């Protein structure tokens, strides 16, 4: 049956091409753009490129574009008043949901009890395997060419070599490649390394789906979006993913080392080198046989668990009403899609997010929106007809656009991607002795080490990767981030003295005492109090504590030992979230409007205490640009 459906899909594409040639002559699109593999999200297996009318049944949906917004929830659009009226009996339950109320309060408030998350003894967590599939830090363009190699308009940007030394999240790679100029003529070699074999091979499959010939860019980007974030897949998409896995991992047990060279749509290749044992887990996941019903039950046992209610509603209490409803819809269905889109076509579990036994492996607090630029997410949604209120629908269109642009860039430019799975320190030593021929000159223009420093220490991190920096490129840099620097004395955590700390900080702000008097009167049951406390780190400089951390890490001795220096003013990423890259040296705290704070920290999930570090070669002349500290 599967083979027959694929034959029919190809035949339908050829017939469409024939008809277009008759109708449009020499204006016909490419064969690839017309070919459909039946992997789309809509009820008839076509792709979703614009918001359709919200009138949908369990059988089919109205295929007309939606433009009449539901004036109550702002989450659904209809093509006509008739469709809006006809759909109302089904839409009523969502449109009148308590989460959409401006006066909605969490359950612990209405039930007059303390929230369970205040006391660790109330949280009984049963063990289940989890993997951080999505990450929680905004994606980084590790090149920032306008302030680096591209700052001299008279000098063309040469070949580039980029290393993501510990990156299970491919969003940094996507953001960086998408930032390359459309006319970039050099060669770009990318090394993408991660120790977790599930993440490594999931990324390899995602890259193959996006970059290999076959489905159109539109269709490939749509199925890749769901493979990243949805609990279920359209039947045609699930079958295609399985075929890709079979092709990539054929004969993978023949040797101790798994090695592949995969063609892309363009000149570049996708290479992979890793231990063969690392491929087994993903193959077990792909070849599992549990049904969709049991997979969705496992997902809801986590996302809708009663013992998670207070934690979920704590986050919901910080959201705008429509955003609460959009998140709730995602938690119910597990499908990243516009709010009104029917999910009848999603008939197979996304086995990349479940264990071989069908257990949901996404952490309880994982959020697909965390790590994405919310302002760009909403702009993408508006471009495709979605309202900003349907934040998850906006996210669907934005991720799909980003993945499509990434695939387009790789097709048109000269880009090779090398996917590996080794301990970062061992990988660095292997590169030094020429184990990876593409990088045998041991000269990277960017080395992104992620939060390796939190696990191995700064000296080890610099000792491993500092010697691999391209000393001939004055803009070359080693980029680090640290979450673990924030010792308990530096950041704000709930504890016995938390209320006193909050009172002390608030009392320093003139005139604020009266405004928050009612909040303190509610005690630890006040949702507003939680929001204030969670945001304190945005207004806590903690610079002295961070400098203590740097001294503890012997940063001065380490950079001297490896002929490096710590940049006083960054050229790639701000020192902390909420501060512009070109901010003056004296600015230590974010200067944001309430809407900007909401987008970056509440919706975008930027981790307030995270700090970023940039190192460059001692002989670099970029220090002249850095100016004051």
From TrEMBL:
Classification via InterPro entries: DUF4470 (IPR027974), Znf_MYND (IPR002893)
Coiled-coil parts of chain: none
Keyword field: Metal-binding, Zinc, Zinc-finger
Database matches in Pfam families: DUF4470, zf-MYND
Gene3D superfamilies: 6.10.140.2220
Superkingdom, taxonomy of origin: Eukaryota
Name of this protein: MYND-type domain-containing protein
